[in-house]
Amino acid sequence: MKNMTRFWFAMILLLAVPTVSVADEEGAASYYADSLQGNATASGEPYDRDAMTAAHRSLAFGTKVRVTNLDNGKSVVVRINDRGPHVKSRIIDLSGVAAEKLGMLDAGEATVRIEIVN
Predict the structure, then answer these.
(1) Which pLDDT does position 22 carry in this prediction?
(2) What is the DSSP letter of 46?
(3) Contact between residue 31 and residue 104 where contact means Cβ atoms under 8 Å apart
(4) What's the CA dihedral at 88, 45, 61, 118 to 10 degrees?
């Protein structure tokens, strides 16, 4: 009986505690240098500057996210295929073409919102 009480108590705690989601996350984005073209990503596929891909610290490989540049309103959908960014102040690293479509090539960094779309 004690074990069942503990079980239900634990279940109530798990359900009552709000979960933290990265479904909506805001912060700095950067993009891969062109010199990384062809290098292996953490998922094993080669980096392709012209693919709509990105690196995120915790989202599963294959997750699609909408990235919106908060400075100009432009947005793209990218697929997570790598780990990073390795700079703590950033939340996502984008492929070159994704950064270009977001209008952030000249600045090198942009404030973005990321939202899971799949």
Answers:
(1) 47
(2) B
(3) yes
(4) 120
Instruction: Please give the Cα distance from 61 to 42 (Å, whole number).
Output: 9
- Of how many residues is the chain composed? 118
For the stretch 40-98, pLDDT in tens is 999 999 999 999 999 999 999 999 999 999 999 999 999 999 999 999 999 999 999 99
Taking the complete model, does pTM exceed 0.90, yes or no? no
Angstrom distance (rounded) from CA 40 to CA 17: 38
Contacts of 20 (CB under 8 A, 6+ apart): none
SS3 content of the chain, % helix, strand, coil (to 5): 20, 35, 45
